[in-house]
Known about the structure:
Layout: H1 14-35, E1 79-84, H2 89-102, E2 107-110, H3 115-123, E3 129-132, H4 138-142, E4 146-160, H5 171-178, E5 196-199, H6 205-214, E6 226-228, H7 234-239, E7 245-250, H8 251-254, E8 260-263, E9 278-285, H9 291-300, H10 303-311
Parallel strand pairs: 1-2, 1-3, 5-6, 5-7
Antiparallel strand pairs: 3-9, 4-7, 4-8, 4-9
Helix pairs in contact: 2-10
Protein name: Porin
Organism: Shackletoniella antarctica
Keywords: Signal
Amino acid sequence: xxxxxxxxxxxxxxxxxxxxxxxxxxxxxxxxxxxxxxxxxxxxxxxxxxxxxxxxxxxxxxxxxxxxxxxxxxxxxxxxxxxxxxxxxxxxxxxxxxxxxxxxxxxxxxxxxxxxxxxxxxxxxxxxxxxxxxxxxxxxxxxxxxxxxxxxxxxxxxxxxxxxxxxxxxxxxxxxxxxxxxxxxxxxxxxxxxxxxxxxxxxxxxxxxxxxxxxxxxxxxxxxxxxxxxxxxxxxxxxxxxxxxxxxxxxxxxxxxxxxxxxxxxxxxxxxxxxxxxxxxxxxxxxxxxxxxxxxxxxxxxxxxxxxxxxxxx
Length: 314
């Protein structure tokens, strides 16, 4: 007798495989479409938003940052003038050397008189690029300035190598010291000696960043044990520390100094990724169409430029 019962197929019907294939094709398309809009992040720097907004909140009417690409060539005789943050001296010099090798016959002139003075020189048209260790103010953005973060920096708390205080500090203790509320090392477990505070001038971007980060925007103290220098430079600070002084500086400038010692903050040293006193460093420009600006920032943001910055200790 012939069995006319239909043979049952094992596994899902063919329509399931068709739907799965369509789903995979659709997912691959979406991934390819979206990946074109994902910005490439600079190592150690917060990437801009997809709409071009920089990490810091831009002021109303502020210009969006331009996209600077590595130039295939730069005309011999091109000169780039940079001024600003003393914290970026080593970065400026490293990029200057790399830029000259990449583009023979060009010249970069660098000085460092503080972030504030550099930004003012840029507004006046005296330089091409300002180096800044603080973000731009809303007024500076409204005046057409744009800041590009290029790396991160760690602010180190330093004492003289012969200072008998051998412990670390909490961020709260650091704030109390620089606001004149803690004035003797004995209050921290050290010797019964006044704490002599060496502060940077207000034109310093490091001064401004320290005030925002450590003092939460508050004022520095004015007690007799606090001295504010007239000029923003790290070497005079280190020279005045002695056995009872304390100051702050960008870590790359003091890491290899034999006459000073870096204090841990909240139990960690600046080499740690969890170190609390970290900040971005910026190059600021006004004219995105300037050949000098395009050439320098294109190099600074390129893999070659980032390698030079890393070699400078950032």
